[in-house]
Amino acid sequence: MYGNIVAMGIVMSTDPTKIVMGRPIGQDFCEVVVLLANKPESPLFIKDDNRKTMKDAIGSHILWFLQYV
C-alpha cells in the first residue's frame, strides 16, 4: 500500500498518551478522523471489532502510522 492514497482525513492528535481504539496512540501512530475512503476495501493497520477496512472507518477516529500521514 506504500505510496497509495487510501483515504482522506484529518490528523486530530499525536499525543502519545491519548487513548484511541482502546489503546494509547504511542510514538508511531496518530489519531485520524477518516472523511473519505479512496480505496474502501483497504485494510486498517489497527483493527477492532467494528472497523477492519477503510469503508468501516468513515466518520470515525482511528490509529494511523505517522509515517503514512
From TrEMBL:
Q: Which Pfam families match?
A: Transposase_23
What residues does the Transposase Tnp1/En/Spm-like domain cover? 5-58
Q: Could you name the domain of life of the organism this protein comes from?
A: Eukaryota
InterPro entries given for it?
Transposase_23
Q: Write down what this protein is called.
A: Transposase Tnp1/En/Spm-like domain-containing protein
Natural source organism: Colocasia esculenta
